[in-house]
Amino acid sequence: MVSVTRITALAGGVGAAKLLRGLVHVVPPEDLTVIVNTGDDVELHGLHVSPDLDIIMYTLASLIDEVKGWGIANDTFNCLEMLGRLKRETWFKLGDKDLAIHIVRTQLLRSGLKLSQVTAELCRMLGVKARLIPMTDDDVQTMVQTKHGILPFQEYFVKRGAKDEVLGVTFKGIEGAKPAPGVLEAISQADRIVLCPSNPIVSIGPILSIPGVRSRLREAEAYVVGVSPIVGGKTIKGPADRMMAGLGFEASAYGVAKLYSDFLDHLIIDKVDEALKERIEELGIAVTVTNTVMRSLQDSIELARKVLGAHENA
Amino acid sequence: MVSVTRITALAGGVGAAKLLRGLVHVVPPEDLTVIVNTGDDVELHGLHVSPDLDIIMYTLASLIDEVKGWGIANDTFNCLEMLGRLKRETWFKLGDKDLAIHIVRTQLLRSGLKLSQVTAELCRMLGVKARLIPMTDDDVQTMVQTKHGILPFQEYFVKRGAKDEVLGVTFKGIEGAKPAPGVLEAISQADRIVLCPSNPIVSIGPILSIPGVRSRLREAEAYVVGVSPIVGGKTIKGPADRMMAGLGFEASAYGVAKLYSDFLDHLIIDKVDEALKERIEELGIAVTVTNTVMRSLQDSIELARKVLGAHENA
Question: Residue A111's closest chain B neighbor by CA?
Answer without folding.
Answer: B46
